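Re: the 641-residue chain
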Amino acid sequence: MRHEPTIRVSAPHVAEPAADRGPGSAQLLAELERRCLGLRTQPGAGRIDALFARLDAFAVQAADLIAKLADPAALSPSARRCFERAHADLGEAFGDVERLLTLPTRLGIPTACFSEDMLAATAMIAMLAPVRADADRLHETLSREMRALLHPDTDDALEARLVDSGFADPLRAARRMRGWQQETSTDRAESDALDALLPAMIDALERYQDPDTALAAFDEIVGRLPADIALFAPLRARPALLRSLLGLLGHAPDLARHLIAQPALIRRLIDGSAFIPLSPPADLDTEFGHLIGADDRQAGHLRIAQAIDAHRFGLGLRLIERKADPLDIAAAHGYLAEAGLRTMADDALSRMREKHGVVPGSELVVLALGRFGGGALTGRSDLDIVYLFTGNHRVQSDGHKPLDANEYYCRVAQQITNAMATVTTMGPLYEIDTRLRPWGAKGLLACSVESFERYHFESAWTWEHMALTRARPVYGSDAARKAVKAIVGRRLRQPRDGNGLLLDAVKMRRDIARHKPPQGPFDVKLVRGGLVDLEFAVHVNQLGRHVGIHPHLRTAIRAQVKAGLLDPAVAGAHETLTRLLVVLRLLSPHGREPAPQQRSTIARACGYDHWERLEADYGAARVIVQESWQATVARAMTGGG
């Protein structure tokens, strides 16, 4: 016999006669509050304060909706979703309390081992069932009343369930789900799995800020699936996989776009390969080298870009699933960008050799700056790059179409830039910023190492030297990279006017605050006491004290803490801010306070069990950074050590 779904997609919903519906929601709320008041007076009630807090939250949401029943226009989908979440949270709280109060019996521990307060609390277990029944009855009745008011013609069980769950467009949502049933009707395993999954899926979606959008994304993924991928049977067999997929749709829509853009990624989600750590650099080089191929250049670039997007998806998934520290995810994003750059640069140089030969005694060096140079990227970071070449800029290449070194390497640089910005269905692979090159937009896209050295010793501004503190060669032979690194080190360690440095730094920070203010309190980089303030404090010490000269900010901070130039608490503050930056760039990139529904996911990804604790540590980190920046300014002004 065919398995019948828990929610029948075509079964009629028969309205109950008014006389059979029993008391209304207002009466049921009053009864629930009366019973809760009696429960609060029982001995040991203090042991279940968490349950009372959830009961209060549920009662507040119910009272708000009851008050709005007189004005249907005030019954928004978001208000009903809040009520549904409060009911779901209450169910979890009842479960937690019941596990606590039955602990002595479950563990077989003698009652003499427990305090009188705990024993009194365990005696309350029999009183919880009626309270829970009252709450469930209130939830069911109020949902029915709202449905009758807002959707009086709803006579379908699935549509009624979607109305109760707060979907803004339950009819369209029901059509989508029926479409899945039709598409799977020829596959018994998939059809049965879908029938079994629908209740759990709706239960999960109703807790999200925008269940309609999450469902639409899921529908698009289903519609774009390759024919050889079965989705619903694996989701039924592995509830954790369903939670992961719906979690992406509900809490990380930007990450879920990867599944829509590349539906075959579902295969990696199903087989678990999306959850494994990023491959080592050598393996990435092999993978990308194979993908570049020898055929159409654009096709090879697109294959690599799609592979990088797939790896980004895996990194984002590991982040929200709390399988890796955000600091390690940031480093992995850096390794990924470097591997892509190496392959694109190798390809550009190979194709240039075919037409124009090589420039004798010369080679390309790529210098990374900013977060790229610091080896800690987010999933949205752009790449700050300076293209250099060794040797004499007047020498010509030795091919049948010779070019002078400047033209040769400028063409190579442009090809690499274009390749790294290859547009996929997710948009440009990377935004490439080359404005930190000598003479900025007025200078050549690629310049000789000699010109680079001369510029930074004779013409560069203080802000350019601050940027140079995070310079790191990421492409070129060992000898060439070592030579460029030595030039950077010599320039950073040159004596300079401390007062002039400080005045320039303070002015630059003020200019940034004026021209690029923070977008909100969670704009972790630009907010007061954020990462930019921290970087300025570190850079002033690097240039003025020559301590902690290293492109990785964590390493520089530790050296300056050891030298007594920074408070030891700065190291922890930097890690808190960086973790939050990496997570927010993925889940809530607008800089404003994250939506309430996202906060627990953000907190867990940052390594916290509660949002309030993360928020408190974020505030403390900002205070530490502000004080460190002010102390750095004061120390520089007085010339103190």
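The CA atoms of residues 111 and 119 lie 7 Å apart.
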